[in-house]
Each structure stands twice: as structure tokens, then as C-alpha cells.
């Protein structure tokens, strides 16, 4: 900071409760893996978690584990382990970090939760390629390594509208998962339980939307960087009452901040949209960098990806198909641009940061002219920063700082 003062960011009180429910979740997963009476499913982050949960599986999300590898800065050293067995440094660094961690026999869970040594051993691996093909390759590797079945949904991609034909396709694919899952679970799918699980996911997602939309207020009571931490329950506990209770509590705290005009960033002057993945190993630095420039990163595509307004307990399977087809990442550029424009207006955005993540092309929307098109149409300036979600060898801290500082200065000049 120019005046040498430490940047001011407000701590969210509910964080303690979130850590508790996440801890309970990991210990329960660990117990499930050891119990002969319980089954564990691994699921992609936007895979059919509701179905698995309703069938009694304890559900582990390898992307969550990979993000922990990134946030604890363990990932960069582990990626070469996966490279040596043929997984390129250019592909998803969640995949390479997670497989690298397995090969090395290490896990951030072991450091954070005494008594847990590793992610739970799966009985089945279930993916949805709506986000990318890498998840299928990732799970297929474990299937071969551990000798467990790997099943999933091959999702249509690049659609502007979620049409009935697409929903029919994915609905049939989800239905096709049920018989093999019943066989592994040793029990029939209870439709009533599925309806209840989808209802809980719907409630979770609705509360998560309200949490994120508190940041439409100026000053914003939470930032993108807070969101990346607090989205944990929406990712790994959707479909449970714990996630619903947690987001009620968090929402209450943020509404209180709004009532008291308390912003997450002291003296908020600039409001930024973050497009793309976070750099997990640089969350704190980036949060401080923006706060120090009185810039609040108020909204992101990434955190909003766990808002699924289409879940419907009255039509659980079809509504899951619709929800998982409606994701931002799986849509066409025409849809994405329309969506971002709506968000820019809703959140009163001054500038956009695009994170071009080296190993995640699907979440990097700066490569085919989108920043230029959106800037032309909205007049809102943007900056592309090069980096990666997990591989810190792709991140230049100095360049990021210089570019962000220059960008905020440009926004400052625009205000005058
Ligand atoms: S979307 Fe990107 S980060 Fe996520 S699994 Fe796919 S390649 Fe990896």
C-alpha cells in the first residue's frame, strides 16, 4: 500500500462453524471408508451428488481434495509425480496434483485432521463431463489403480439453451446409473429419499445464491476470496441439512453487515468481477493485494457455479439433468457473455479480471476474444492475468501485482 498501512479485510465470524461442519464431514467420510456397512462414492464437483447421497453413499469430491492441495501449496511439488506416469504438465493441475499426492502417499487431510491418513477408498467413481474431459480421465486412472468401477455421464457441451432434447439425454444417462449403483450400494433407490435430498440441495443452492448476492450491495459484505472458502459446504455437503443450516447462519451475518454498512474491504472504491478459477496457493496474497488497493472483488463466475436454480424435488432426476446442463462452464460463449453482462450490471462492476489458468482451458474464457467483445459492448475495462489454479510454476507474483496495480490505477483515472 502506498501509505504503508496493512490492508483491512473483515473476518467472517461464521468461519468457525464452517470449519466444524467440514471437519465432521471429513471424519464421517473416513469412518465410512473403514466401516464394512457403508459405501463410499467419489463424485465430480458438479456430478450427480444427490443421487449418490440418496442411495446412502458417503460422497468424496476429489476436486475439493485437489483444491486443498493447492491452498496448502502442496500441489506444485506433487504434479511432477503424475507427469512421470504420463499425465502432461499441461492438463488439469487438480488431476495431476491429486494423482501425485496418491502416488506420494500424502494428503492435506492428514495435516488438518488428526487420525485421517488419506482420502477415503472408493467403492465406485462417478463423473459428469459437463465441466471437462479431464475428470473422466482422472477417475479412470483411479478405477484402474484401485480396481473399482467408474461410471458417469457424458454431457452435451457448448449449448446456448438447455433444450428438452439435451435434458432427455442426460436424464436417461442419470437413470442408467441407478442399476449399477444399486448393485454396489446393495439397496434399491428410495425415490422419496431422492426427492428429500434434491429439496435440500435446492435449499442449499438458494441460500448460497442469497449469500453471494449480498455482495451486490455497496460496500460488499463479502468478496470472491471469502466465497472460495465458504463455498465448501455447497460443494461437498449439498443435499444435507448441515449445509442449509450453515448458509442460514452465514446469510444472517452478511445481512447484519449490510444493515451496518460494513464492507469486507475497508473503504471499497472499485468493484471487480473475477472470471475464472482462483489461484488456490495465492488466495491470501490476492485478497490482500486487492484490499490494499481498495478494490473489492465482489463476484465471480466460479463461486456462482454452485447455484442450481433448476433443482425440483417434484421431478428429481430430470431437474438434476437440467441443473447440471445449465452450468456456466458447459454453455456457449453467447450464453456466457449474456450471463456476465447481467452480473456486471447487478453487481455494479467497474472492471473485470480474467484468470487465464494454464491447465484449465474450460475455466479460462479469455482465449477467444471474450474480453474484447464484452469491453466493446459494456465499456467496462478488463485485465487478463496468467496463472494457474494449482501449479504455482505458472504464476508470476510480480507480474500479477504490477498488472493489477496498473489496472486499478486505470479504473481510478476513469472515475475522475
Ligand atoms: S474444470 Fe478445469 S480445474 Fe476443473 S477438473 Fe476440469 S480441467 Fe480441472
Beta-strand segment tally: 8
Instruction: Detail the poorly predicted runs.
Output: none
- Whole-number mean pLDDT: 96
Share in helix = 40-55%
Distance between the termini: 21 Å
How many DSSP H or I helices? 18
Q: Tell me the major beta sheet.
A: 4 strands, parallel
The oligomeric status of these chains comes to single chain
Radius of gyration: 21 Å
Structural class: alpha/beta
Strand order of the largest sheet: 2-1-3-4
What is the 3D shape?
globular
N-to-C SSE string, H for helix and E for strand: HEHEHHHHEHEHHHHHEHEHHHEHEH
Bound molecules: iron/sulfur cluster
Strand-residue fraction? Answer: 5-15%
How many structurally independent domains?
1
Task: Give your account of this protein's structure.
The protein is of the alpha/beta class and 416 residues long. It has one domain (15-415). Helices cover 52% and strands 10% of the residues. The protein is built from 18 helices and 8 strands. The protein has helices spanning 15-34, 49-54, 62-71, 75-84, 93-104, 108-112, 134-146, 164-185, 191-213, 224-230, 232-236, 241-259, 283-292, 301-304, 316-325, 333-346, 370-378, 397-415; strands spanning 40-43, 58-60, 124-128, 150-153, 270-275, 295-300, 351-357, 382-387. It has a 4-stranded parallel β-sheet, with helices on both faces. A 4-stranded parallel β-sheet has the order 6-5-7-8, sandwiched between helices. Strand 3, helix 7 and strand 4 form a beta-alpha-beta unit. Helix 1 runs antiparallel to helix 12, helix 8 crosses helix 15 (316-325) and helix 9 (191-213) runs parallel beside helix 12 (241-259). The protein is globular and about 65 Å long. The structure holds iron/sulfur cluster. Iron/sulfur cluster binds next to helix 7.
